[in-house]
Amino acid sequence: MHTSPPQSATRHPVLVGLVEAFRLDLIVVPSAFVAATVFWIVGLGAQLDYSIIPEWAFALWALVHGLSVTTIGFEFSLAPSLVTVGVWLLVSSGATRIVSELSDAEPHPTSSGEETPWWATCTMALTGFALGYAGPLIALALIVGTAVVDPFGVLRLVALLGTAFAFGYVRARGVVDVPWLGALDAEVWEAARALAKRLLFGALALAVVVIGVGLALRWSDLTESMESYSSPLSAGIGLIVVQLLFAPGALFGALSWVAGSGVSIGAGGLSSAFVAVTGPVPDVPVLQLLTGDYPVWTTAAPVLLVVLGLGCVVIGRTHAGRVYAASWTGVGIAAGLILIACETVALFAYGAIGPLGLAAFGPSPVFAAVAVTAWLSLGTAIGLVLTKLSHMQYDESELAAHDDR
């Protein structure tokens, strides 16, 4: 009995990507309008005409993807990183669907009747996805959303789409088609991936602890600043929401502060575990942690990253054995994955947040990721050395026991 080919075999790969981009637009654009409407009602509904809502919606859409926007006379380029993470997950899910669909489809023929290579088919589909999504985004952001397309904004947009596509591709097909990684033993890749996953979630937990300790040490100062609001309770609820929207960037800022690469507070200088600064910052608890003095023992904060890297290697006998078998190759791959993740977050954790001299706020887009990765890698290297020494001692004990027999 004749059966029809899979649906994706009857569609051009570029069309597959464009359909996925349109599907994503149906989620993101209405969400931006809902958020802009809420901001207009809750914030400035009495002072501004409702026609400002489309401008805010497309400005928010652009800001989430890393572009700079100018509204109400102020420049904003610090992305609400929690929303950015959500968009990144949607893009990566779309890339996974595209790669999975093309993997299951029959090869797409060229005009000469030959089969199109897999890499060319996948590249065409993902290019269609990128252009179909980023093209309208940039156009509408410029025309309606008062966005500014600068090199840094374009770099952030490319980083968002590129890393999401790469994650979606690996999630669908693994690394078998990836140059150099595809030639690795599967166990080496799995050990490196598991180690990178531990480091990532461990770093997130460490950042939460660091911010918690900071809040405890500066609680009296923060309580005093909250009293400046006419309604501290309402202000506290609003500030919690705002801080959650920027949570990923704030967490990475905490890691950068611990690593010593610091967090820029514009005209106030660079705040880190080694340097105490004073500068104008809004009355937001997480931001106020960046100013003022801390106990001397906080200068030893980078040790926390080293200990974290060490623990991520040696905790768990089975896991430690896998890392030992993967050796320096596995540790190096894990470090590379962490560097890519940290650099992507660092790009979106830095930007302008309007007035008060905060035109350059956040961890360095270049040095912060390198510093955090370097301290973690030092810990993983020490952990691997200890694991190797432990195996050497075990082997010698086994040999001695065999000789006694």
From TrEMBL:
Pfam families for this protein: DUF6350 (PF19877)
Ranges that cross the membrane: 26-44, 119-145, 151-170, 199-217, 229-247, 254-276, 296-316, 328-353, 365-386
Residues making up the signal peptide according to the UniProt record: none
Tree of life domain: Bacteria
Keywords: Membrane, Transmembrane, Transmembrane helix
Name the record gives this protein: Integral membrane protein
Organism: Brevibacterium metallidurans
